[in-house]
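Notebook B, p. 112. Complex prediction, attempt 2.
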Amino acid sequence: MPAPLPPAARAREELVANLMAIPAALGLILAVIAFFHRGSGISGTPGAGLAILGMAALTVAALLVGRLAPGRLRTFVTVMILIGGLLTLLCAWFLMQGWIMLMIVLTLALWLVFILVAR
Amino acid sequence: MTLFRILPALVLCAPAASAQQTEWTGFHGNGMAQKYSASTQITPENVGDLEKAWEIHTGDVSDGSGDMVGTVWSATPILANDLLYIGTPFYRILAVRPDTGEIVWTYEPEDTALEPLTQPELKNRGVTYWEGEGDGPCVRRVYIGTMDAELHAVDADTGALCADFGEAGILNVNQWNKPDANFPLSQLQPPTVFRDKLLLGWAGKDWHDVENPLGSVFAVDARTGELEWTFLSIPEDYDGVTGTSNVWTAMSVDEENGLAYLPVSSPSADYYGGTRLEEIPLATSVTAVDGDTGEVVWSRQLVKHDIWDYDTVSAPTLIDIPNEDGPIPALVQPTKMGYAFVLNRLTGEPVFPIEDRPVPASDVEGEVASPTQPVPTLPAPSMDDDWGGVFGLADLASFGYCSRTFDELRYEGRFTPPSLEGTLAYPATAGGYQWGGGAVDPESGILYINSSRIAQIYQLIEREEYETLQTGGSEAEGGLFPMTGAPYGFRLTNFLNPVGMPCWKPPYGLMSAIDLKTGETLWERPFGQIQKWGFYMPESWGSPTIGGPVVTASGVIFIGASMDARVRALDATTGDVLWKAQVEAPAVSNPAVYDYDGRQYVVFAVGGNSIIKPQVADQLVAYALPD
């Protein structure tokens, strides 16, 4: 059982995780727009649906991970963010959605920061 | 027509009359089907700066999910009379301002059936513009055809029906159909203008029956609709035996020499010729007729005893090929086989030699395939003679499905006849080249043309067995062709694995430049991108295409056509993509290029076609350089 984190460290972790959720949420919005906008090139397609799913999962996971105490569950969610992010990045690459890709890269960059600040 | 609707047209005429413009007066830009614009404002250097100048949505679109069938919109906008005219799949005509897209008038037909009478979907390829002499109403006219065989003529200034044409402005083309015909002579392709005549081909349900209306082209007076001559592609004593060999695509005209060129399609049944073994010399041909009389001047059959549905697919492009000994009056006839036949357009003699090559025999009872087929030695075909073998990735993804299927098919190269076990057809009826045709720069003598590489499976099915397959499905749409009257039905399928990947190797679509002076292919590049479930495949795979290019004097090629719903500008020298924009569906139409008030525009009708992708739209969009 790891020792409880000091409040300052915990706040820092939560802040980084929340920051991570911002590009993920923006990516989610972009994916939703791409799904519904007729001129996106991918409107109404399963690929766009998959991008929405991926970005939604990233957003939820980013919000969740900062609120979890250190332990197996947080490790699992942290790893899943990386895997989900990379897979969604691949999905966005094949969908040729540059802005979504940028949001995912930002999310993963903040994920790296989270790893560095988290114990 | 209310004064409210007429006024904007009158107001428009005042400033526009002085405008310096390059017009785009026909489906292929001009009657010679060159798709060439003399405009030079947009260049390879600045084309990257293109921006959307205006767009409109016509509202005439259906994805087929409701009561109405889907729409296929392949219209080319026409710039004439200081207005841009466009027809829609609901047979409406819009006249819009060329510089703003503002709608000046709309023609809405009454009592026209929006039903798929001869085609699986509602189709339209636009309108025709004709201008007579003198003043007064209907001196300038716009025509639109309908699937139920009507041709409507309206005043180009106001959109009002021209009462002196046909009956109160509507010509019933079906009056010249055989009395017991199994389908109307659908007017999907706008008429071709030859002087003061309109040349009318037609489309039909040619895939359904053996016996159909005999192929014909009608020349009618542009003012009255009165019939002036009729061309028949099949001898009249063949009535009741076969039919079609019609002209469903655009034609081209050489007004100076008084000739019209007819791309004649294949006879019915499309895939079995055992019921029509006697020669039909004008079938699947390019035929030159006297534009004033309809008399055949010369004809060249491009496929003998066609049993592959290799319809002559586009208007031949006419060009005087630059030559040391003086220009050669030529035409280029692209075909579904990926051949471009280059002929002297006055005599029909080949500019580059054509060889008669032996081809495989049919093994189907009752069928006698031609032992040879004509093959042009130059230019090189857009598809190799051999299909190239199974695509390893598609085979791997389907655990060997492609290889197993191919092992069961008959394949002996080009012109392998349809068979009972199934024949791999490469090229197949999907082409090769298609109805968009090529664009040519008359100064340089270079042809720019897009093509597809598609492998399909042709399977004849014994009548008894075929009847058990009839589950009330959508026939041609579902790949089943009844060919009623023949001992066989037919199934046509694309050679895809179960997840939808092509079983043949990429590229699937190309853009090429061909020097018509030498027949040499200058460059050939994969064009467009395939999409599956929204995912884009590599650019090196290219995309099947529908719709053609245009080329400008400044060396820019504009084209939509690809599956990825993008419109592009290419460098005519290299084929490099210089600019692209996303649109709402595949732009399966020929674009129009024109100058208006000192600004050059390129306009695309974006309508989609379910053959290429299940995505439709009603977007008309114009691009120009920033003001």
